[in-house]
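User: Can you predict the 3D structure for this chain?
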Amino acid sequence: MAREAEIETAFIGKLQDLKYSYRSDIRDRATLEANFKQKFEALNRCNLTPSEFARLRDEVIRPDVFSAAKMLRERQLFTREDGTPLYYTLVNIKDWCRNEFEVVPQLRMNTENSHHRYDVLLLINGIPVVQVELKSLDVSPRRAMQQIVDYKSDPGNGYTNSLLCFVQLFIV
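Assistant: Here is the predicted structure, written as structure tokens:
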């Protein structure tokens, strides 16, 4: 019977075959946000100052999945430090092949109340949109689903106060 680590390795291999970039260097909130900044700047052909990025990050993080989903589809306006407007998108809707698809294993997201580890996250342009919870066959799928529910129910969880607010799909 395959262990969870073997399942993860095989799954990530399949995603790499589909041209997902493997990002083992993204391990925590700081590296996730740094990657998002890099992808955001490339997609929108801009360079943000550290304070502009901090403000942008705070503006895009949403407390509910519905407003986050809407933000993924629409063009947004951000006012730069010098007062100039920056119209931006998070996902290239018109030309999907210009988006960057990445797979992140074992991301750790620490909050004030807990320490969560996400088995596999799929990112589009640095934004986590799919969370995959892997379990070996001897573990009930119900346990994996309960783990996701527990993570979402945790006060101060990463789904409401980090880029994880954009997760649109959970796969067990």
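The radius of gyration is 17 Å. The first strand starts at residue 21 and ends at 22.
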